[in-house]
Amino acid sequence: MENIDVVGMWVTADGYIRQELLPNGRYDEARGSRRSAYTGSYTVTGSHLDYVDDTGFTATGDIRDGVLYHEHLVLYREEKKA
After folding, report:
1. Which of 6, 45, 46, 70 is the most buried (most CB within 10 A)?
2. Can you give the residue range of the structural domain that contains 27?
3. What is this structure's pTM?
4. For each of the chain's 82 residues, which pLDDT tens digit applies?
């Protein structure tokens, strides 16, 4: 199974949570006006993501039909602006 491309900005429908998945396997998550509220690393296996934040907390996510289901969050890929 080939890993899907997850790199980019993922946001909740209300824009409050913004999770940037970086190409180097790191992520940076903003919450409201709080930039870098959570940072850490992630790995991708197929369409499944495993997260470890810099404090050691772990979480998981799955991408289904282009939507990232990350624990209790639902995030949508932000389109790149031209």
Report:
1. 70
2. 8-77
3. 0.91
4. 689 999 999 999 999 999 999 999 999 999 999 999 999 999 999 999 999 999 999 999 999 999 999 999 999 999 876 5
